[in-house]
Design brief:
This protein is mainly α. It has one domain. The protein has four helices and no strands.
Length: 102
């Protein structure tokens, strides 16, 4: 069990460092974006991934904020995407509740 705690601590430390570096480079974040991003990190997820499975053109996942903004854009202007994409956004209920105990 001790090894698990070490890995959990190492993961938390890594994710926190990644978050600090990301927040310095991403530019302006709204208070809501910052809160959502930090909640995502508390679940043990990387800032360089997203719950919507939105990818860049090269196939890599979009970072959380870029994907969040893209998701909002799709919901606010569904004409720029296909009706299937829009329906998928409407059906999405948000990330699960598998929080890590930080």
């Amino acid at each position: 069990m001790k090894r698990s705690n070490v890995l959990d601590k190492e993961l938390r430390d890594l994710l926190r460092k990644e978050l600090r570096e990301y927040e310095q480079t991403i530019g302006d974040l709204t208070p809501d974006e910052r809160k959502e991003l930090r909640e995502w990190i508390k679940k043990g997820r990387s800032v360089y991934d997203n719950p919507w499975y939105i990818s860049m053109e090269n196939g890599w996942p979009m970072d959380y904020i870029e994907a969040s903004r893209t998701f909002d854009e799709i919901q606010n202007d569904p004409d720029i995407y296909s009706s299937e994409d829009s329906a998928a956004c409407d059906a999405y209920e948000g990330p699960g509740t598998d929080d890590l105990p930080f």
